[in-house]
Amino acid sequence: MRFVDEYRDAAAARALAARIASRCEPGREYKFMEVCGGHTHTIYKHGLEDHLPPAVTLVHGPGCPVCVIPMGRVDDAIHIARRPDVIMTSFGDMMRVPGGEGSFLDAKAEGADIRMVYSPLDALKIARENPDRNVVFMGIGFETTTPSTAMTVLRAAEEGVGNFSVFCNHVLIIPAIKAILDSPDLRLDGFVGPGHVSAVIGCEPYRFIAEEHGKPLVVAGFEPLDILQSVDMLLAQVGEGRSVVENQYARVVPWEGNRIALEAIGKVMRVRPHFEWRGLGFISHSALEMSDEYAAFDAERIFDVPGARIADPKSCQCGEVLKGVLKPWECKVFGTACTPETPIGTCMVSSEGACAAYYNFGRFSRERVREATRA
Amino acid sequence: MNSDPIAVEARGAKESQVLARVERARRRKAVVREERITLAHGAGGRATRTLIDAVFLEAFGNPLLAPLEDGATLPLDGARAVFTTDSYVVSPLFFPGGDIGDLAVNGTVNDLAVCGARPLYLSAGFILEEGFPVADLRRITASMSAAARAAGVSIVTGDTKVVQRGKADGCYVTTSGVGLLERPSAPSLTAARPGDAVVVSGPIGDHGAAIMLARGEFGIESGLRSDTAPLHDVVATLLDAVPGQVRTLRDATRGGVATILNEVATAARVAVVVEEDAVPVRPEVTGVCELLGIDPLYVACEGRFVAVVAGECAGRAVEALRGHPLGEDAAVIGTIKDDPPGLVLLRTAFGGTRIVDVLVGDPLPRIC
Q: Which residue from A150, A205, A353, B14 has the highest number of Cβ atoms inside 10 Å of its Cβ?
């Protein structure tokens, strides 16, 4: 397929892999975090780690939108969805995320009207077609998905659709990275920066990572060669003792971001004083809620929301996995009590979650497979 | 922190222990934890398998059912008959390349064919929703009749039920079929062994991709058509070309090629290694899957099968298939290995390796 195959070429990958290996100083180990769940998915889907020398480790970060939703917010959303006058709409990824009292899929089987949509505009369409019902969109995601939620609210306001609202769980990437940088358990050599998020917020907001924390960051695209090239760029910076923000994904990401998208978000939403993240706890100024001007579209103000606070199950180590402190398989319940079929933690749900990606794509010993296929 | 080889090895050993524990957990007896049926139970992936093991096999278990092949082989008075059944709930009922009618006939014909049987007789049961247009029913029965003629089978018994408006979605069809095993050996899920080759009979995912687009939810136009077709003849071509050397045959319907390969790996306790570059997929299907974030290996086909054949016969098998109109793009896509048993591994076009696991839920319900 044009414009895709070029970025998945095995020969180009081998050439890059050789350069990456040559950049590694003997006896030194390099750890880079890919912040974005989309990158985690690409890494596993294409078996990218086979191209990396043992000295380079990719640590999976907190950028999986579904993974950071705390259980209480799922329960709150189900509470709204159970009202007979409500149609809850959600991205498919969200359907199996467990709350304290089951998931959307369970609530749907019990009779709640919960529908999967591919975009918030689909939810708005459902609202137009069902004027006697309240249609709620479960807004999740980083700055990648936030603009489309904001634009949809603007459209709803313009068209005067009064039965549409958003249960807003949109989160911000920078506070999440700050939380990682402040985590004492982790030593990183740099970041593979998120691609789509950066297309919205631009590259400037990352400057403090390079300048104050001395960690290089390379904004990367989502094809496997993009990620390999970004690793190469990070190793070059480390080797030269530099730490700056670089943009590998310039074909999509403008340095200054997307002004129109940012304006739409600024109009419709405002920063929450604090928000609970799955496994990471409360992080101040880390999420968005609807602004006063658009209160009429705020499901939290329209409906009585219990504001459930559910502690993560004791056995769940999603927090450590999200911070990159643990590899998925190092979690105590990985693959035994916690599986994609019966997930305890959110990291096991979304295809962008580190645990699900490892379980579905990477759950084998590379040495053993090399051995077996050599014969 | 350094890349001390002993430390790296110790980490690898610990990871291997965890993986071994995970594999043991996967082999544990299935338990249905949900109190109610969810859509995942119908997706053909792990939840479906759990439901079959924990509810249906628990209640019905018997030696003929236990192998869980596409049909049961019945010893009847000297002859060996194959008996199978399938229900169809596809939405929309009419789609590019076919409709629920030919799907229902071809699906059951194919289940018989991949058991190695010559399809003979079908039943047809209809569940109709009050208000369903008779003209649509006539369209469906006309294409069933044409499909039956093409497959050389007769629809010899049937049933009709009508339910209140809103209690069904237009029309559901159930077909059962009987065929005869005429060759000495029949393919089986457990027969794959190391050194065998994995063959697909044509480009994969056409049916699923065509249905997704036909629903109109994505606003994408394409020329994609369902691949629904009766496979008895192309299967016979293969079985005659390499007699006794076809170990396993399955039509790649719900859950696609990936699901079949996982069934093979589990049942035969072998590893399946697939070369991504070798898998035939139409560019339109690749495009749709890329947009929706779906892997074509999981997308349903209704006129393609997966065959495991003895390694030395792979060339002859593919050549014979390519001589048949329904096997023109047949290809060897992988090989059977002994280790690690139960896993399907993909060598990606990018030069890496990954697992192709059983799906948990269905990204796209009501494909067939």
A: A353
